[in-house]
Structure formats: C-alpha cells, structure tokens
Amino acid sequence: MCAVVPLLLVGVQQQEEMASQPYQRKLTALQFEYPKTFNPDEPKQFRTLVLWLEEMKIRFYELPQRAALRQVDGGSAWDAAFAKYLLDLGCVRAEAKGSVTGNDSTAKKNRAVLLDWLLNQAVFAEYKDDGMTQTHLISPLHRSAALLCCSAL
C-alpha cells in the first residue's frame, strides 16, 4: 500500500516524464541533441531518430543504402525501407511487428518495442566503438591476463 501512495501524488506531467525516462537516459548516453523533447509518438520524430541512429551510431548500412531511410517525411517507401533495415540488422521482432505509422495503439506499441531495440543496438555499437579506441590504454600484460581469465570460462 505504501508503494501506491507516492504514485497517486505524482502529477500527470511527472508520470509522462517518468514514462519517457528510459528513452531519455539512452538518448542522453548516445549524445542525442534533444533527449527531453523527443516524442516517439510523432512519426516524423521517430523516423528522424531512426535515421540519426543509423547514420551516427549503428552505421550498419553504407551511405548509399541509407537513401530510403533519409525520406523522413514518410510514405510507404520509408516503411518498406525501415522493415528491410530491421531485417538486415537481424531484429527478430521485425517480422512480428506491423506498421509503425499511425497513432493507433498497435503502431504506438510497435514503435516503442522497435525503438527500444534500436536504442540498445546503438548503445552497444557506441560502447563497442569506444572500447576499441580505448584498448591502447590497457597494458599488454593486463590484456593477456584478461584473455586468460575469459577463456577459462
């Protein structure tokens, strides 16, 4: 009962901020320019973020392959490019998901699930890149000791 009381005291605006916090934390970690104002329910913002994630963080496609994702004004061409992009990335949820356009509850849920998956991929790519650039800081002795420990598992 005690855990329920504080939630009742939280205003609607604070509840909305709390709901968007997972995105905000990941977007902030990825150095996205507008983490607090990003609205995943706004289709153009969603498409723009997908493009930004691909161009700046994930970088799975070569530059020419990103052309269809750059059509952030929407349309069926972007939807098809996004579905292909998810399949190419190996998103197991891509086949099960329907449309991400529209404001019905299914589209909103699909956007939320796929956005979370893409943000996780971007965070992984960012920290993988960062780790690769930081390996020179680890002495060869420590690196070989770490490899021995990991290979014993």
**Share of residues in strands:** under 5%
Distance between the termini: 44 Å
Radius of gyration: 19 Å
Average of pLDDT: 76
In one word, what is the shape?
globular
Low-confidence stretches are: 1-10, 134-139, 141-153
Helices and strands, in order, run as HHHHHH
Count, helices: 6
Helix content: 55-70%
Describe the biggest sheet?
Answer: none
Give the structural class. Answer: mainly alpha
Work out the oligomeric state of the chains in this entry.
single chain
Summed up, the domain count is 1
Number of strands: 0
What would you say this structure looks like, in words?
It is a single chain. By secondary structure, the chain is an all-alpha fold. It has one domain (about 10-125). It contains six helices and no strands. It has helices at about 5-10, 10-30, 45-60, 75-90, 105-135, 140-150. Helix 3 (about 45-60) runs parallel beside helix 5 (about 105-135). It starts with a helix and ends with a helix.
